[in-house]
What we know:
Number of domains: 3
Number of strands: 11
Strand order of the largest sheet: 5-6-7-8-11
CATH superfamily of the largest domain: Sulfite Reductase Hemoprotein, domain 1
Shape: flat
Order of helices and strands: HHHHEEHEEHEHEEEEEEHHHHH
Helix content: 25-40%
CATH topology of the largest domain: Sulfite Reductase Hemoprotein, domain 1
Number of helices: 12
Largest sheet: 5 strands, mixed
Structural class: alpha+beta
Distance between the termini: 69 Å
CATH class of the largest domain: Alpha Beta
Radius of gyration: 21 Å
Strand content: 5-15%
Amino acid sequence: AAQTICGCTDLSHEDVRRLIKSQELKSQAAVWQELGWTTPNGCHVCRPAVNFYLLADWPLEYQDDPQSRFVNERKHANIQKDGTFSVVPRMWGGITNPTELRAIADAADKYNVPTVKVTGGQRIDLLGVKSEDLPHIWADLNKAGLVSGHAYSKGLRTVKTCVGTDHCRFGTQDSTGLGIKLEKILWGSWTPHKVKLGVSGCPRNCAEATCKDIGVICVDSGYQIGIAGAAGMDVKETELLCQVPTEEECVEVIVAVTQAYRENAKYLDRIYKWVGKVGLDWVKKTVVDDLETRKALVARFELSQSIYRKDPWAQHAKENAQNYAPLADLTPLAAE
């Protein structure tokens, strides 16, 4: 029997996803009531999952509930063991410039950031930022054009690239340009778990695309798209989904795969676990062979992105800065 989503219900994740669609349930309250939840408002296990399923299926009708998210997603930064946070601006395809680097350096100085680290995803991590400084450091980084890297999210993290034909004598395609294009399309999207991409300009695979959730190996004749790689608790090479001749088709297939994953996977399953359940053949049939379904998936992804492709740092720096301030010090003063 399928495992139940939590102790609030006898339903599995798969049951809940199916019923949200078939019964057109468009709020958490509707899920609790119509599906017979035993608790009035769910719990810390089911609420994040149900919140994701609702926003994935009903992007226009359902409003994301921040209180149903993990702390990192609520704070838009990763909490560290000492209670401070890390701030990782997005660097499209791993590309930056002097203006962005100066802004990062200035922010590190201004907010006394103790550690500045280059990440494995070709970005720069500012570690040790106080909660009350978050909206201010975000605002400063925004002025240089930097946005949230979503390093804390169940969503697109990074698109790692090599330099491709721009500089490398072995490059077969513009891997950097493709990586930037993919990241600008996919950023901001919420997914069942984090998603990492890689685009390598030739089979030498300098961007390590073959251990990513979705990876592209550029070859003379086009683009080899692999999915379901892993390089964490499990280590797994990607499986070849297809080879396509044009960058345009490569992007379309990857967007369709991402949306199929969003619509069908269990919350907290990485792509390799999802593909292990539905089978690579099902994914091929859905997003490679069936052109009509592929284009419909892309259209639904774009509809969702019309809501979610935006910078949360800019919004919170402007509207919610007070939420990051420390609590008032209510320690009584000693009488003189």
